[in-house]
Each structure stands twice: as structure tokens, then as C-alpha cells.
Amino acid sequence: MATLILVRHGRSTANTAGVLAGWTPGVTLDEHGAAQAAALPGRLAGLPIAAAVTSPLERCHQTLGPLLAARPELALHTDERIGECHYGDWSGRKLAELADEPLMRIVQQHPSAAAFPGGESMRAMQARAVDAVREWNARITEEHGADAVYVMCSHGDIIKSLVADALGMHLDLFQRIHVDPCSITAIRYTPTRPFLLRLGDTGDFGSLAPRQPDSAAAADQATEDGGNAVVGGGAGAA
Questions:
Q1: Contact 98/104 with Cβ under 8 angstroms?
Q2: CB-based contact 161:17 (threshold 8 Å)
Q3: How far apart are CA 198 and CA 70, in angstroms?
Q4: What angle do CA 181, 184, 189 make, to 5 degrees?
Q5: Which listed residue, of 44, 81, 85, 161, carries a Cα 20 to 30 Å from 131's Cα?
Q6: pLDDT digits (tens, 9 = 90+) for 178-193
Q7: What is the pLDDT averaged over residues 203-227?
Q8: What are φ and ψ of residue 200, in 5° steps?
Q9: Distance, CA of 105 to CA of 108 (rounded, Å)
Q10: Which of 26, 124, 48, 140 is nearest to 81 (CA)?
């Protein structure tokens, strides 16, 4: 079956502001995110990409823009099922203030039981994303052959949930996975089981360095403390 190249969108204005964007309109790539997107065609230059699929949100379309410009023959498809989690009433709020919400402990430690007020459950988020990938795998394989490679641009929590599914991990463990903005995660699917080939690969080890007390670190601090994951993915390395 096809090999899936998952690309998290580049760093966005919400990432650097420490805001949980969700489906909030007007969230775009910041200057660094645009530079990340511009580098994407070179990073994928050696791959014969059969198709591209994207979340409907603007930051994902912007991330794939340079790749599509470099490969005008590449077909682009939009699929709402790989759009960001519907965070409901949490959308647009600062991560620092959300850290004090009782639900955050459930999101971190028992996400399969978490449902966002006015939004969706994390179980539903994963289920729709997994359904989308399985359908696209079958479609790409049928149209382009078992060795085909395709790109899918989505969001941090969506990609983490897809990786958990590929590894046979319970959703309650998915917060142990981290993917930086514009990182590449590759999964090769077979008739019997998937293989995780790359996870959150940016080709840059800067994010492994100790955190400095700058604004980016401060934006993440509320959810980094205590080893918690950043809901929505966080800004990653600048």
C-alpha cells in the first residue's frame, strides 16, 4: 500500500502567541513558518509524490503552497477529516489560562475520555483522521500503485493520533508523541500492519537544546511544566 508523508503546518501566529487556534479563522504562518514552508520542496525533492491532501485550514494550504508551485502537476485535495481538533469553547484562548482548567488534566493523562466543551472528543478526532488516511491509502494505491508516496498536511494533535494508531498505541498514550511545526512523519502501510519510518523529522536538532527564558518558551510554559504535552502542538523550536 501507499506510503504517507505527514507534514505538520509551519509555525503559525497562534503558535508563537501561545494560543489554542483550533478552527479559529485568520490564523496564518508567521515569518518563520513561511520560511519553513519555502524549504519544504527541497526537503521532499527526492520523492515521487503522487498527490497532496490538506486540511482546509489556511495555515496548511500556506505550508503546501511552495511545494505545489515547485510541482504544478501535483493534484491537491482538501479533506475536512484531517482538519484540526474542534476545541470548541477553548478555541482562541491562551494556553497559559487553559492550564488551570480541570479538563486539562484529563486531556493530558486520559485523552480518550476528554471532550472539549462545545467541540468534539479526542476519540472522535482520532477516528475521523484514521478513517481519512485509510480511505486515501486505498485510493492512492489503486490509482498510483502500491509503491506510491503521497503528502498530507495537517495539525499536531491529528498527526500524533495517527502515529498512535500506526503503532497500535492506545489514545491515552498519544501525548507522549511530539511533532514540531513543518516536521515530516512518514508511515508505510502494508496489508497487515503499518511501519513508522520517520517521526517529527525537521533535520534540525535545535529543539533538543535546553529551553531559554525567551518569549517562545514562556508561551509553552503552562503546558510544558510537569512534563505535559502542548495541546495543539505548540510552537517548537524557533
A1: yes
A2: no
A3: 23
A4: 140
A5: 44
A6: 999 999 999 999 999 9
A7: 58
A8: 55, 40
A9: 5
A10: 124
